[in-house]
């Protein structure tokens, strides 16, 4: 198959490029800074020569979006929103104009669309969409709005011959440098990987190999369209999540951090505390119902595998 991945040069794109290329597919990445012949220039917002790549392709997986690991200034929030909505809109336009459109368009979304929740896990059927929670910072609603507008941009695209799936993905854990697992592992190995603000908040995650397997599954399953959660069935409170991560690195100590310390730490790392404090309890309802099974349903074995692959480089 020919697979086109707009925004495929980042962490998730690297995982998919590696997996789908190993499967023997012809993978093309759309990027604002192309390097090498498999990367094609686009600007993420206007139609151009790149649209020829979409015409005649089999699968499009759009991952483009300004990183959310940044300070939530007005300028960055606007870039987080526009880079996602604009790229989804223009990918839709390219598919709509294609004489030979792809059979499926997988559009990245995020598990952050669900409400801050400690109780029942949010699945696609009855899961509570966020934005209206009490007792959380008001600006958290903006991340939910980004996710909603992102999905609407895909829904509104007039692409009748192309199946559309919105990927409500939890944090994708891979041993690659600079990914979220790498950053959390670095903190854990420094002895700083303890509970944050009590650590009751849930962490939803997915192992990189399960993420790639779920993408293959969604490409093949013609009966699946709409929003699909990509999250392991075992989300767990942050304090347990970090305990397992420390144990994978054989680090006995993990200093706890209060809410204000998390604020200082996030500021120092040019990030935002929402990424640490929002409770993301998400279940893979549709994937499981469709018969998908996870190779790494539990964080303990996932973390051990990721740490051992990281050690091996
Ligand atoms: N990583 C996760 O665990 C996770 C979980 C859920 C959802 N997501 C979402 O999945 C997507 C991919 O995640 P990732 O971790 O691979 O992100 P990433 O490493 O930051 O890569 C995102 C890619 O988007 C492109 N991009 C950035 N700003 C852009 C802009 N203004 N216009 C067009 N393209 C732009 C970049 O490509 P070029 O610079 O080459 O153009 C970059 O390679 C993101 O939208 C993210 O929010 C990620």
TrEMBL record:
Question: Where does the record place the NAD-dependent epimerase/dehydratase domain?
Answer: 3-229
| SUPFAM superfamilies, per database record | NAD(P)-binding Rossmann-fold domains (SSF51735)
Q: Which InterPro entries match?
A: DUF1731, Epimerase_deHydtase, NAD(P)-bd_dom_sf, SDR39U1
PANTHER family xrefs: EPIMERASE FAMILY PROTEIN SDR39U1, SUGAR NUCLEOTIDE EPIMERASE RELATED
Q: Where is the DUF1731 domain?
A: 273-306
Q: What's a Pfam family this protein contains?
A: Epimerase
The organism encoding this protein is Micromonospora parathelypteridis
Q: Which Gene3D superfamilies match?
A: NAD(P)-binding Rossmann-like Domain (3.40.50.720)
**What is the name of the protein in this document?**
TIGR01777 family protein
Which family is it part of?
A: Belongs to the NAD(P)-dependent epimerase/dehydratase family. SDR39U1 subfamily.
